[in-house]
Structure formats: structure tokens, C-alpha cells
Amino acid sequence: MIASILLAALVAQLAAQGPITQYGRKPKADKGPRALGLIQLSPKGNKGRIIPIAIMMDGKFYDAGSYKATPVPMALDFDIVYEGFRTGVSQGVFTITQPGQLNHAWIAEGTWLPAGAKAPETSKKYSEPVIEDKDAPPVLHRRSEKTADGGTDSKDKDKDKDKDQQKPSAPPSANPPAPETAKTPVPPETAKTSASNEPIEDPNRPRLRRGKPNSNARREPFTTFDALTDTAPGTSSTGAGKANAKAARSPEALPQIVTIPAISDAGGPDPRPYNYDVKPAEEAIYRNKMLALAAAQLRAEAGSVEKETAPTHKKSSSRKSARKSSALSVPDFDDVTLRIFDLSNSNEPVLVLSAKTRPPAAGVTESIEEPKEITLIARTNLEGEVQKLFFAQTDSRHLDVAPRMELIDAVDADGDGRGELLFRRTFDGGSTYAIYRVTADGLWALFEGTP
After folding, report:
1. What gap in Å lies between CA 330 and CA 41, rounded to an integer?
2. Count of CB atoms within 10 A of residue 321's CB?
3. 71 with 53: CB under 8 angstroms?
4. Angle at 354 between CA 351 and CA 360, to 5 degrees
5. Considering the entire predicted model, what is its pTM?
6. What is the Cα–Cα distance from 415 to 88, expressed in whole angstroms?
7. Nearest 5°: phi and psi at 341?
């Protein structure tokens, strides 16, 4: 009786506390080193270049092009392996073979092995030894040799030898041939100096992902690379060749360079895809909502600019009506690109819209504005509506203040299993790269390089 009462009291106490939550083991945080770069592949061949972007050490991001450059940056050392990803899906492996500088910036050349391809074999294949029967009678094998003039068999050589023996021997010459000179040994001092020229690696230096070193490969000294050019081979620079060169350099004729984000990490989590699968009808709905949100952001910023620049004196009613109608008009967009990601594996879409506003026709307004390039990042709420996380607009005259934001892809830059957004930011005087983490109400900059 007492036992049943105690059991009932325990059950009532557990029910009052609520359901018991079971927690799994938290994955170990990746503290690095973990390097992020951008691979540039030529349409022909399996070679390419890699541009270092950022490297994470002890949870902090540094510029990979200058981090521990003694004498080569740590992210561009020999035989370091980068794995290329597209939206979290592996595309292949890039192995660095030669670091160098391009316009005073570090890059590296290497070899590209696509995913699923077989690596070329550098070692000799194993052949099973042939075991002969000892009880069988011995067999003499005569090897057939060919001379450099056209080739004669060994039987012909024996016949020629018998003919030479029948001929009288020639008298010995007064000056016998000089014996071969023996190879002089290398002095130990020379061997020491040649060995001292090779780079000495620090055993305490952190390691990125490395491939199997090739002992037969010879490390070339650091070189200065030329810029990647898409000019067609064989074009002339004089006369009619100039026209051919211009035609060959047109955007349709030039080969497109493929860019792939890549990560090098000796450990780190297993990769996973970051794409968000939607049906075409759902994608069209998201597209319309994002364009409406972008138009609202443009109108809001245009209204704030007009309030700041409006003079104190009164204006005519016609100007007010024209300005009001232009502010409420919906802009037209060109070059619209919408990408949808699932960065946290929670089935919550993150939408990134890139577009250009269409300039108004001549004569419609007093001054023709330049087309603006916009970047809008949003996510959906519980009601299915899109909420703005980030909005940026710029044009060719304001690149010194507002850079052009170009989305490259979603990557796991810090090795926590979640995806971050990798952007290329173009300023008036150059370009750089930035990594942003998407939060509940905005973007958090993990790394922003200087142009």
C-alpha cells in the first residue's frame, strides 16, 4: 500500500515537471586551420588557379593571402588540397603545385581532379613474377637486337663476325684510344649548400589538408604569374587581324572561366547540400514577393532622399503630383536572379535576389537616372511572408560609397555545419570578398576583406 502511494506521488511529480528532454552530444567546434578560396578553372584542361580568401585559426578569420607568409602564405603552401563545392555538393579536388604573385597578390596554380574521376597513376604497376618449372629442360633465349641504321638480327651479326675473322687484322694504331674519364665525386661542401637552398618546414606549423607528396616532382622557385586572358590564340594585331581579334574577344566568343568555392581542412564536418528544393510554381510566388519587397525598399529610400534634399520654400502643385506619381510607380527589373538556400538544415528558405532597375525612357522624366543594381536578402516567417534581412543598392557613380554585391555561393566557412553566404564586393578602386552569416533578423559579417 505504501509502495503504491509513493509510486503515484513520483509519477505526479514527473508529470508536473513536464516532458523530459533528451539532449544529444554537442559536436566539437572546429577551431581551424580551415582555409577558404576561390578556384578559377579554364574551360580546357585540368589546370587552374586558386585565389585565397580567408583562413580560420582558433575561431577567428584572417586574410588568407597574407597570413603567415613566410615566405608563402599558409593557405597556398605546396601540395595543399582544396575541395571544391557548389552549394555544399563536392565538385572535385584541387592540389596546389606552384604558388606565386599576380599584381602583388598571392595566388597559386594547381591541378584539378573532378569528382568521380580517377587520379593519374604515377607509380609502376605490380606484375606477378613468372615461376619456371625446374624439372623442364633448359631453354636458351636469343635476344633480337637492332642497330641504329635499320636493324639486323643477331644471326646476321654472327655471320658478319665470321667474315671479319677471315679478313687480315689491321696493324695496331700508334695512339690507343683514351680511357673514359671517371666521374668526379661531388664535394661535401657543394652538397651542403645545395641542400641548404631547399625550404625548411617548421614542425610546429599548423597543417591544412595535404595530398600525398610526389618525391619525383621538383619544386620550382616562386614565380610571378600573368593575368588570366581570354584572348583567342593566333590573332594578329595589324591590318585585318585587328578586326578578327575584336571579333574573337567578343563576349560570345570568349571562353568562360569557371569559378568554384573551395575549402581546405584536415578535419571538419561532413559536407551537406544547402539548396532548397521548390517547385516552379512556388519559385514564381517567391520571385513575385521578392520583387515587390525590392520595389518597396527602393520607394522607401527614394522618399527618404527626397526629404533630405527638399528645399524649405513651397513648391508648385504640379511638381508635387509628378514627384508623388514617380515615387509610387513600380520600377521594372532586368537580369533578375533568385537563389534559395536552406543554410541551417531546418527547412527554412533564405532568399537572395539580385537585379537591375530598368532606366526610364528618354523624355519621360527631366533627368535620366542610371540603372541601379540591388541585392535583397530575406527569409520567411510563420505566415509565409518574406521579411527583409539585408538590402543594398548602388550604381556606377556610387561605387566608392556602396559596393556592388555579387553572390558567389553558400559555403561552410567556419566548419559548424551551417552555411554562410560568400559575396564579392566591388568598389571603385578594386574588389574583395566577404563572408556573412544569416541570423534571425539580419546578417553578421564573419569576414570582410580590404580591396
Report:
1. 40
2. 10
3. no
4. 135
5. 0.67
6. 12
7. -125, 155
Look at the block and give the residue holding cell 651479326. Answer: 157
Q: How many helices (H) and strands (E) does the chain have?
A: 6, 16
In sequence order, the β-bridge partners of residue 39 are 50, 260
Give yes or no for a contact between 349 and 340, defined as CB atoms under 8 angstroms apart.
Answer: yes
Question: Over the stretch 299-316, which tens digit does the pLDDT of each residue have?
Answer: 888 776 656 555 544 444
Which long-range CB contacts under 8 A does 211-219 form with residues at least 24 apart? 211/79, 211/80, 211/81, 211/95, 212/79, 213/78, 213/79, 214/79, 214/122, 216/122, 217/97, 219/78
Using CA atoms, how far apart are residues 223 and 243, in angstroms rounded to an integer? Answer: 34
**Contact predicate 392/415, CB 8 Å:** no
Of the candidates 435, 422, 430, 436, the one whose C-alpha atom is nearest the C-alpha of residue 450 is: 430
Give 358's pLDDT tier (boundaries 50, 70, 90).
confident
CA dihedral of 118, 120, 121, 122, whole degrees rounded to 10: -160
Q: What is the pLDDT of residues 85-114, one digit of tens each?
A: 999 999 999 999 999 998 889 999 999 999
CB within 8 Å of 208: residues ≥ 6 apart: 33, 34, 35, 74, 75, 77, 80, 81, 264, 265, 266
Neighbours of 83 (CB within 10 A): 20
Question: Strand 223-224 relative to strand 420-426: parallel, antiparallel, unpaired?
Answer: unpaired
Return the C-alpha cell found at 113: 581532379
Quote the pLDDT of residue 51.
96
Neighbour count for residue 88 (Cβ, 10 Å) = 19
Max Cα-Cα span within the chain: 132
For the chain, what are the domain ranges?
34-117+208-265, 280-306+325-448
The fold for domain 280-306+325-448 equals: Lipocalin (2.40.128)
Beta strands at 443-448 and 81-86: parallel, antiparallel or unpaired = unpaired
